[in-house]
Amino acid sequence: MKNNKLLVIICCAILAVVVVFGVVFGITKISKGGKNPADSVTGFIEALKNVEVEKAAGYTTDGNTGSLDLESNNEDAVEMVKLYFKNLQYSVKNTTKEKDTAVVTVEISNKDLKTIFAMYATKAYEIALSKLNGNSNTTELDMETEMLEYFKTLFDSQEVQTVTNTVDVKLNKVDKEWKVVVDEALTDAMLPGINEVNESLGAGQ
Fold this sequence. Notes:
The chain is an alpha+beta fold and 205 residues long. It has helices at 4-26, 37-49, 53-57, 70-73, 75-85, 113-132, 140-154, 184-190, 194-203; strands at 89-98, 101-111, 162-174, 177-180.
């Protein structure tokens, strides 16, 4: 059955985001962080919204997942990731500091990715089933194009709810600069439902 590329498209959309967060941890020579915790959080979020991976990395604590020059080597992934962050809105609510650690409370709103991928999977199944039953003369390339265009429209769809979360972003002071600790709570606040989608895809493999 020649419908494997539909699943590939779904997985690539997820992986594009995973790559970005992986790169943030993996770059060893990075730009400077913020001079205060709130500026670091704001700088980190703005850099991710613009898919400025190295700049985002400058606001984070060190990691060890390897490196990948996403910006120059994978333009398609960059454009895909921009979709994830295009509707993201945030507001810094509070900052607490204690020596070399800090917590910045941020209210973050974004489209529900769990709903987006559920709608996308349903559409993919319908198109694939129609082709399998001989009800469509659409080529595999046309199917891919149609599905990618449909996926893009979901980020502007009124059917997809906006989720608002308040998250406590942890920071550590490193060489007099404040670095964001990127954890599951922050990831899920910025990309609502992404962890559940990731788990669902993993369980289906």
